Amino acid sequence: MGRSSYFHFKQFSIFQQRSAMKVGTDGVLLGAWTDVTGAASILDAGAGTGVIALMLAQRSPATIVAVEIDDEAYREACFNVSQSPWPDRIEVRHAAFQDFAAQTTQKFDLLVSNPPFFENDLPAPDRQRSTARHNHLLPFDELLAGAAKLLSPNGKLAVILPSRQADNFISKAREQELYLVRNTLVKANPAKAPHRCLLEFSPVPGLLREELLVIENGRHHDYTEAYKQLTRDFYLAF
């Protein structure tokens, strides 16, 4: 996936010159996969460039709050929202998620997050990239505690994580009375082991829906029909 100053989707573009984390497959997967059915209010925790918030605005009539702690990412998210078809439905807040969760009284039907997930790895030398990639500023416990506080009674939490961290996150979520109801394992190609998990949680226990998504067939850029179907409303190539 490209790393130029702009990334163009079918209905909007992302300016990403200053943000540490550029448009990537993880964010696009989460934005396309998340169930927006019945969601009138959505919170994007760790908005980055705003790509997930914009994808959800395209897919739903919801009002969206996007919270971002990094200065440069916040400015780019504001710009991207202002240039999109939905500036009246997306509000970008410059704040730590924990502070926002502690101060707001608003409840949300859906909370999405592509959270920083490196825990024991050495921090990246670049401060901005380290903030975006390492979860010392948004540990899983604090993300989940905030989600438990902010979700409406029938609300949902949707995240994408490395497969190796899924069990830990699921266990921590259960401690906050958030229960896994949907789990999609993501494989780069049929020969690879799953490397990502798309996870949906609810305050109400329910039957677990398990799925598998394979991104490419045997060759690079030879995308599966399932991946094309999931992302075709966004990617120009599909």
CATH architectural grouping:
3-Layer(aba) Sandwich
Number of strands: 10
Unreliable sequence segments: 126-135
Spatially, the strands of the biggest sheet line up as 5-4-3-6-7-9-8-10
Strand content: 25-35%
Report mean pLDDT, rounded to a whole number.
Answer: 92
Largest sheet: 8 strands, mixed
Query: Can you identify the CATH superfamily?
Result: Vaccinia Virus protein VP39
User: What is the CA-based Rg, rounded?
Assistant: 17 Å
Structural class: alpha/beta
Number of separate structural domains: 1
Could you give the order of the helices and strands?
Answer: EEHEHEHEHEHHEHEEEH
At the first level of CATH, the class is Alpha Beta
Net shape: globular
Give a structural overview.
This protein has 238 residues and is an alpha/beta fold. Helix content is 32%, strand content 26%. Strand 3 (41-45), helix 2 and strand 4 form a beta-alpha-beta unit. The chain has one domain (6-118, 132-231): Rossmann fold (3-Layer(aba) Sandwich), CATH 3.40.50.150. The chain is globular, with a radius of gyration of 17 Å. It has an 8-stranded mixed β-sheet with strand order 5-4-3-6-7-9-8-10. Strands 1-2 form a two-stranded antiparallel sheet. It has 8 helices and 10 strands.
List the helices and strands and how they pair.
Blueprint: E1 6-8, E2 13-15, H1 25-33, E3 41-45, H2 51-59, E4 63-68, H3 71-82, E5 90-94, H4 97-103, E6 108-113, H5 127-133, H6 140-150, E7 151-162, H7 163-175, E8 179-187, E9 196-202, E10 209-214, H8 225-231
Parallel strand pairs: 3-4, 3-6, 4-5, 6-7, 8-10
Antiparallel strand pairs: 1-2, 7-9, 8-9
Helix pairs in contact: 1-2, 4-6
